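Readers of this paper often ask what the protein records in our data store actually look like. An entry from our holdings is shown next, in its original layout:
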Amino acid sequence: MGDAARAAVRVKICGLCRPEDARLAAEAGADFLGVVLAPGPRRQDVRSARRIWGDLPVARAAVFADTDESEVCRAADRLGLSVVQLHGSEPPEFCGRVRGAGPWQVWKAVRIREGERLPDLVGRFGAVVDAVLVEPFSEHGLGGMGAPLHPEVVAGARRAWPPGLALVVAGGLRPENVTAVVRSARPHVVDVSSGVEARIGVKDPEKVRAFIRNARSAG
């Protein structure tokens, strides 16, 4: 991937809990606005997710984890999702069925443990999803929990990345390190939540703007 492609990295601001933060992210140039519908401190329900997004003309992404397949598809349809992000132990067959059930993309999160090889994990899902989201494993819960993903974990696998499959990088991203991560790991999308917060559930406007600006400048 050349410099022009690196410059085209897209940004997802996730863990949105307030309409004003969704507007902030949209105005700052985010490509995806993410709401968590899985257990955790930023969890929302379908009604509150709809309120958070409002009528903003930005792609909507929702995070699910080990949710019943019919419930995932029903929520995706009701919310007009662009992206269904599966963050639990969903097998490839589940991902493929959800992907085929509607017009949305499916992103599958894989959580890298020490000693695991990313190509082995990607190989399980590459044919049945639109993107693989890579983040470090945490004993404390789903998501990267603010722990950093070492870019070298991704860099080697990126050279043989399956064509047509997007790479999303998450975990420990902040305005201060996103430029280096984009340059080394060369993701298609960077995904941030806690790294642009003032406190849990509340985004910091300056951090959001700086994160998007620094990600885009990495090319």
